[in-house]
Specification:
Length: about 140
């Protein structure tokens, strides 16, 4: 469960830092509508990433031999949830598309890197390989 909490803390930190760095240039380039789009994408990507971290946090301590599948399931959940929430927001809120699409890519890729890193940590920490028994090497 520690991996889940550290993962969520890092996801939040990455979103806050990226948003703080990008606030000024976004406001200069696209104004208030651009900042609104940036914040919307931050919330969409972060919420999808937190939901995607749940399978790792749930499976790792209970069924360590399935941690690889949980990591892949989390990545798939994040991809589908980000796409669905992003499409819904774009369809109904009609945000500034330049800012929206740019920040969608930035937040998605940053959070993908964090999620992948914690997936590797979880696999290394929880997955236990069974030693080969008997027989000569092939």
């Amino acid at each position: 469960m520690k991996v889940f909490f550290y993962s969520v803390l890092c996801l939040i930190a990455v979103v806050v830092i990226a948003g703080a760095i990008g606030y000024g240039p976004t406001r200069t380039q696209w104004g208030h509508d651009g900042v609104d789009s940036m914040i919307a994408m931050a919330v969409i990507c972060l919420s999808a990433a937190v939901v995607a971290a749940l399978p790792i946090g749930f499976v790792a301590p209970r069924w360590p031999s399935y941690i690889g599948q949980a990591v892949m399931a989390g990545t798939t959940i994040r991809l589908l949830l980000t796409a669905a929430l992003g499409y819904g927001y774009q369809r109904f809120a009609e945000p500034h598309l330049g800012s929206y699409l740019m920040w969608a890519g930035i937040f998605y890729l940053l959070l993908l890197a964090v999620e992948t890193s914690f997936g590797v940590v979880a696999v290394r920490r929880y997955y236990v390989t069974q030693p080969k028994t008997g027989g000569a090497p092939a």
